[in-house]
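During the no-cost extension, the postdoctoral fellow (Dr. R.K.) reprocessed legacy sequence entries with the updated structure-token encoder. One reprocessed record is reproduced below for audit purposes.
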Amino acid sequence: MKINYLYIDDDVTNDLQPLIQSIESQNKDLKIQHELPLEFAAQIKHIESLIKTSKIDGLILDLRLDQNRQAANYRGTSLAQELRTTSTEKRIPDIPIVLLSMRNRYNKSYRNDHTSHDLYDAAYIKDSIGVDLPASTVSSELMSLAIGYKKLNKSKGNDSAKFASQILSLNSAEVGALDNAILAALTPNKPMREVARFIVKELIKTPGPLIDEKVIAARLGVDIMKSKDWNKLKGIIAAKTSYKGIFSDAWPRWWAHSLEKWWSSIKWLEKGFERLEARERVDAIKKLTGLKKLDDAKPIQNNYSTRFRTVCLGFEMPLDPVDGVLARDDKGRAAWQDKDYISIRAALEKVKWGEGLRVHPDEEIRLSEYKKLR
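Re-encoded structure tokens follow.
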């Protein structure tokens, strides 16, 4: 499927072309057309026209559009806000809007401006692409967002049950088993950008019903880096547990309940994986699948449990929550979402404190007791 993005940035095209080409080259179906910003009203009219005539499938905005162009006395966020309002009034369909800005502007103007975060489906730092962030990742996510929005707009004429079924690729029974709060967020009566944001931020990027590769490996007790048969095992697991709904092509995830169902289908096992040590889990998997090149994951330190359930945010290693403390979460988690944990060791050593990682306030007293024991 051919996907076209309009990229508005006040830098000249020749300066941006290497960045654009690095992203486009990852997928032959992706096209990014750069344009300099116009006066605000003219810019809105121009974008609306392109959306209505289906000439663009998504929009990329620089944060600052008023640096090199006198005509553009506004920022990308103002443009995004106006377009979101226009789509709410149903004058145009929703499309993905993506932020692409330099690190200094991103950190200064966007990172702490939480009111603007919901305007964008994704945010990227220009000078990170090709360095800390592969261009292939950006390309994949841009494609996935645009294709996902197309499916959302196509499905919104259905009733709520069918709408949820189509966008999540679940049958009616599976949809009915979801938490009511999830179903309430996935209705065709809402603006499609809200549904898209909920799926990406609350389902895909927050562990709960859906889990990522590191968490699924932790629950299976497998060391991803050392296990040469990990991809083979992942393929076996994916056949029964993978999420196939919108945005899954860029953000692979697995249904947690399906993983537990798969494990419980192993007739000769008397215990759920949460009651087994990592080594026992891996031994059982080897016996079931015949895959021999699987290594059990080791704990962060020797006295930690290997009944892994999650991943330490500090060391990014498997963790049994009994050996951790809750991480601070300024947004707050729904009852159906998993909590984030930091291993006690990572918390005491303040691992990733420079990146904003912190212990939940309710855990400070408990952590102080551990400090006394050191």
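Residues 135-155 form the longest helix (21 residues). The mean pLDDT is 92. The remaining legacy entries will be reprocessed before the final report is submitted.
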